[in-house]
């Protein structure tokens, strides 16, 4: 996993760890954000103790990284407008949408540029482990990370799609206003295309003026190929 065995020069590297229900993946980049190495660890996250997680991660993080991103992938999240958000009520907000398990803890990401807060839950054992290993690093929901690193600011007429294994996250801007942020399950490229076209239809998006951008789809070229039958698509 590590690009060099000598940890004394490790401060030029950045580490990103993305967690989901089936384990986690680690990626190392250099100072130019060029991907140097990547590795996946398969493990049922909900069944691991904090000590289990620490043991698994300790095998992979023996370099002093200059920057660390901790990203938690989940379909259960809720955006609350910043003026309405109260930190002591974060669990109540999320409970309106889903039941929080007894082994979960509610956390949130402040997104000032969007004037909103993303509330989500993670396994309690995971939070304990990450707080011990990376005490000064914020755990970001994958949608928060997508917004802050890929979308960044509002766009006049745009549709952004973040591709996951069996889920897609769609963000739509119309006339410089955020119209939609939602996640959809898909099995095939046809499902993927259907959800995209349905969103466009429901929001009456002018496809001639709307920029469609597809992210994280390099390993699934069939998604772009099928979508391009109907839309002009850019990839990142």
Task: Describe how the helices and strands are arranged.
Blueprint lengths: L13 E7 L2 E7 L5 E8 L7 H9 L8 E6 L4 E5 L8 H6 L8 E8 L4 E8 H10 L5 E3 H10 L6 E6 L3 E8 L2 E9 L3 H14 L8 E5 L5 H7 L5 E3 L1
Ends distance: 24 Å
Report the uncertain regions.
1-10
| Strand tally | 13
CATH architecture title of the domain at 158-235: 2-Layer Sandwich
Name the beta content range: 35-45%
- Number of helical segments with 4 or more residues: 6
Largest beta-sheet details = 5 strands, mixed
CATH class designation of the domain at 158-235: Alpha Beta
CATH homologous superfamily identity of the domain at 158-235: Protein of unknown function DUF3822, C-terminal domain
Please trace the helix and strand order, writing H or E for each element: EEEHEEHEEHEHEEEHEHE
Structural class: alpha/beta
Task: Kindly state the percentage of residues in helix.
Answer: 10-25%
- Order of strands side by side in the largest beta sheet? 3-2-1-4-8
Written account of the structure:
With 236 residues, the chain is α/β, with parallel strands linked by helices. It has a domain at 158-235: Nucleotidyltransferase, domain 5, CATH 3.30.420. The protein contains 6 helices and 13 strands. It has helices at 50-58, 90-95, 124-133, 142-151, 189-202, 221-227; strands spanning 14-20, 23-29, 35-42, 67-72, 77-81, 104-111, 116-123, 139-141, 158-163, 167-174, 177-185, 211-215, 233-235. The strands form 3 sheets. A 5-stranded mixed sheet has the order 3-2-1-4-8. Strand 6 (104-111) and strand 7 (116-123) form a beta hairpin. It is globular. The two termini are 24 Å apart. Mean pLDDT is 89; it is low at 1-10.
């Amino acid at each position: 996993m590590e690009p060099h065995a000598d940890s004394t020069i490790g401060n030029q590297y950045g580490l990103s760890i993305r967690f989901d229900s089936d384990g986690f993946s680690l990626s190392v980049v250099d100072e130019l954000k060029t991907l140097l190495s990547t590795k996946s660890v398969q493990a049922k996250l909900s069944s691991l103790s904090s000590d289990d997680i620490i043991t698994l991660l300790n095998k992979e993080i023996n370099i002093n990284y200059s920057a660390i991103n901790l990203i938690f992938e989940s379909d259960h999240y809720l955006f609350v407008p910043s003026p309405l958000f109260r930190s002591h009520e974060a669990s109540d907000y999320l409970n309106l949408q889903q039941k929080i398990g007894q082994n979960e803890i509610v956390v949130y990401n402040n997104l000032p540029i969007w004037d909103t807060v993303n509330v989500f839950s993670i396994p309690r054992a995971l939070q304990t482990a990450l707080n011990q290993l990376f005490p000064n690093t914020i755990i970001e929901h994958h949608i928060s990370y997508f917004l802050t690193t890929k979308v960044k600011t509002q766009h006049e007429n745009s549709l952004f799609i973040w591709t996951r294994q069996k889920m897609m996250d769609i963000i739509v801007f119309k006339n410089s206003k955020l119209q939609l942020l939602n996640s959809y399950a898909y099995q095939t490229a046809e499902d993927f295309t259907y959800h995209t076209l349905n969103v466009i239809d429901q929001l009456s998006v002018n496809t001639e003026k709307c920029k469609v951008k597809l992210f994280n789809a390099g390993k699934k070229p069939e998604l772009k190929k099928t979508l391009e039958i109907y839309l002009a698509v850019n990839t990142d």
